[in-house]
Automatic annotation (TrEMBL):
It comes from the Bacteria. The keyword Cell wall biogenesis/degradation does not apply. Pathway: Cofactor biosynthesis; thiamine diphosphate biosynthesis; 4-amino-2-methyl-5-diphosphomethylpyrimidine from 5-amino-1-(5-phospho-D-ribosyl)imidazole: step 3/3; Cofactor biosynthesis; thiamine diphosphate biosynthesis; 4-amino-2-methyl-5-diphosphomethylpyrimidine from 5-amino-1-(5-phospho-D-ribosyl)imidazole: step 2/3. This is Hydroxymethylpyrimidine/phosphomethylpyrimidine kinase. Belongs to the ThiD family. The keyword Transmembrane does not apply. It comes from Salisediminibacterium halotolerans.
């Protein structure tokens, strides 16, 4: 069986973070493993607390998994601060995992900070160049490039800018575009662009979308798909999961991994 490791934050509410990643790996028949960077106390109404794990704790989880269980692909999500970024980057250098998917998580939809402001530059310089692919959404790509990303032409420029910063491949997700009835994700490998478009689904139950999309890419890479095929297959998975998003608490619900 293929194996995937997620290095990310825990969502006690079960919809995003480590929990979304492991559910996705399981649905896609990949053995899921985890290194938890932070606990969040969270439910459908928002994030009530963030409790980072010690750097030593993060390091040892990654070493324990990598030394014995040899992941076929690794994904990073919430990395929270500079110290955790440093240890993840050092270990990525050390272990040379076959594939590394970097979801540059910054802020939850409910507004909680999942990456400290002073760690953004660190993420850009230490983690981004190590990634097989990075998966920013529009607000994240705006922070990473300092550009205003209205429209596809600007997003192409932003993808080129991120490539100039050392990202090998960029999947710039279009789901946050205002008022659009089509969602277009832009895939750029430094040479050519591929646009992946689907009709926008009108729902508020999208909690965990970004985590699920990136972990589906990771699972398909672990299974040996090429990067573009992994993204296309993951896009199908997340589109179906969003279509079947459902409410389980008082706030917006999660996507459905079993759909
Ligand atoms: N909690 C954790 C631990 C996350 O990693 C993320 C997103 O990456 C979120 C919450 C936010 O999820 P959403 O913005 O889909 O609500």
């Amino acid at each position: 069986m293929k194996k995937a490791l997620t290095i990310a934050g825990s969502d006690s509410g079960g919809g995003a973070g480590i929990q979304a990643d492991i559910k996705t790996f399981q649905e896609l028949s990949v053995f899921g493993m985890s290194a938890i960077t932070a606990l969040t106390a969270q439910n459908s109404l928002g994030v009530q607390g963030v409790y980072p794990v010690s750097v030593e704790g993060v390091e040892q989880q990654i070493r324990s998994v990598s030394d014995d269980l040899a992941p076929d692909a690794v994904k990073t999500g919430m990395l929270f601060d500079k110290e955790i970024i440093d240890v993840v980057a050092d270990l990525a250098d050390h272990y040379h995992w076959p594939e590394l998917v970097v979801d540059p998580v910054m802020v939850s939809t409910s507004g909680a900070k999942l990456l400290k402001d002073d760690a953004i530059e660190h993420l850009m310089t230490r983690i981004v160049p190590l990634a097989t692919v990075i998966t920013p959404n529009i607000p994240e790509a705006e922070v990473m490039t300092g550009m205003d990303l209205n429209g596809l032409a600007n997003r192409k420029k932003a993808a080129q800018e991120l490539a100039a910063h050392g990202a090998k491949t960029i999947l710039l997700k279009g789901g946050h575009e205002d008022g659009a009835d089509t969602v277009t994700d832009l895939f750029y490998d430094g040479k050519s662009f591929h646009a992946l478009s689907v009709p926008k689904i009108n729902t508020k139950s999208t909690h965990g979308t970004g985590c699920t999309y990136a972990s589906a890419i990771t699972a398909y890479l672990a299974r040996g798909e090429t990067l573009l095929d992994a993204v296309i297959l993951a896009k199908k998975y997340i589109h179906t999961a969003i279509k079947h998003g459902f409410r389980i608490g008082q706030g917006p619900g999660p996507v459905d991994h079993t759909a």
